[in-house]
Design brief:
Largest sheet: 4 strands, antiparallel
Radius of gyration: 23 Å
Helix content: 40-55%
Shape: globular
Number of helices: 14
Number of domains: 3
CATH superfamily of the largest domain: Jelly Rolls
Distance between the termini: 53 Å
Strand order of the largest sheet: 1-8-3-6
CATH topology of the largest domain: Jelly Rolls
Structural class: alpha+beta
């Protein structure tokens, strides 16, 4: 493999540091040929699935390299190690010439995403276990109460199809009959022949907990990714043209972990398992893009998990805003303004605060005259203020954590 792909073999002695958390400009990731490597983080929010010790065939550093964000972990050699170093620009070659390795990375990313997403749901959404198919009825109920009949129709329809003997089947059928005239739900049963699809604004592409066998590439428009938790719609992300979503269900054959809703009139390319298998070798640029997006999401979810450890509610809001700036690659410059594509309620939901606590923290946030709520969007007149405040609260939390550890050791 190293000859065909012009990859580099690098060797590290026992105890050597290979990558360091927080380091910017990662250009290479590593596949272990021999030896053991330990992965650690400054803030260990959740134990890594499968443990923190890696061996031959495992890989690390891919998240930072493919997302082009800072490293989220430190890698140290537990023994003398031989590694294959893969430059980010060579990932397309890796897909074509060694598809099993590329697919192992993608499948590993997908598992990691699902595991981290479940951890985040436990910590921020107070959701202790994955909801079952019966949850489809409650998704329908939520949107019906909001008079969002397109989404309600879609969820009720899936419930009737997937839970024909469910305890709420009679109610679901009655609800469907009542709202049918007021909804314009589309592709209720998907399509085996039509892969270029148009979804009008506020129509559901798929619902959380339902099975899925397609991923989607946004051609035009935007898509919001949401969950209904405790009778609240939690906004997880807003995706734009070029973004890919729905890949976890296709790759792992697991239920949808969240809902996807057209945020505006949207055109999508649907990719099923058969087409995806062909794409891996014939269109490596799309698979590279999928890997970049998965890496981006994993980086983001680690930042969200670290946010849950901040004890100060106002600090968590500032930190969440800085994470969004980092995610959107907004340069931090004095005096530069920025408008986020979400409002105050979405900000509170992002960090998973109870609404009463969130509103109190929000009042404190808006006392800063550089932060304003305008037209259901958060507007900042000087983004360096967000950077300064978030870093202050992170530093205070680090000092407090050191104090607690010192007390425990006495």
């Amino acid at each position: 493999m190293s000859t065909a792909l012009h990859l580099t073999i690098v060797n590290f002695t026992k105890d050597a540091y290979i990558v360091v958390e927080g380091k910017q400009n990662a250009d290479n990731f590593y596949i272990i040929r021999s030896g053991k490597v330990r992965i650690s983080k400054e803030v260990e929010v959740v134990q890594e699935e499968g443990g923190n010790v890696l061996g031959p065939g495992d890989f690390f550093g891919v998240v930072a390299t493919m997302s082009q964000h800072s490293h989220i972990e430190t890698a140290q050699a537990l023994s003398d190690c031989s590694l294959i170093s893969v430059n980010k620009d060579k990932f397309g070659d890796l897909i074509v010439k060694n598809t099993p390795v590329a697919m192992k990375i993608i499948e590993g990313f997908s598992r990691r995403m699902r595991y981290l997403d479940a951890a985040l749901a436990r910590l921020t959404l107070q959701q202790s276990q994955e909801p079952e198919l019966e949850h489809l009825f409650y998704v329908g109920e939520f949107y019906a109460k909001q008079s969002q009949y397109n989404q309600a129709h879609y969820a009720y329809h899936q419930y009737v199809n997937l839970c024909p003997n469910g305890p709420n089947i009679t109610k679901a059928r009655e609800r469907l009959e009542k709202i049918a005239a007021y909804s314009k739900a589309v592709y209720l049963d998907g399509s085996e022949t039509e892969f270029n699809r148009t979804y009008p604004k506020n129509t559901m592409i798929f619902s959380e907990v339902m099975p899925g066998a397609e991923l989607y590439i946004i051609q035009k428009g935007s898509v919001k990714i949401t969950k209904v938790v405790n009778d609240t719609e939690v906004l997880l992300a807003v995706l734009k043209p070029g973004d890919i979503f729905g890949e976890m269900s296709l790759i792992e054959d697991k239920p949808r972990s969240a809902s996807a809703i057209a945020y505006e009139d949207t055109q999508l390319l649907a990719v099923n398992r058969e087409n995806f298998a062909r794409m891996v070798s014939s269109q490596p640029q799309i698979i590279t893009r999928l890997t970049q997006l998965l890496a981006e999401r994993i980086w983001f979810i680690y930042k969200q998990l670290a946010n849950t450890l901040l004890s100060n509610s106002l600090g968590r809001l500032y930190d969440a805003l800085l994470i969004q700036l980092e995610r959107n690659r907004v340069p931090i410059r004095n005096g530069e303004s920025y408008t986020f594509d979400f409002g105050t309620k979405e900000l509170i939901n992002m960090v998973g605060m109870p609404m009463a606590e969130g509103k109190q923290a929000l009042r404190e946030l808006l006392k800063n005259n550089r932060v304003k709520a305008l037209d259901n969007k958060i507007h900042v007149t000087d983004i360096s203020e967000i950077d300064k405040q978030a870093k202050y609260y992170r530093k205070m939390q680090k000092i407090e954590r050191s104090r607690q550890l010192k007390k425990q050791s006495l």
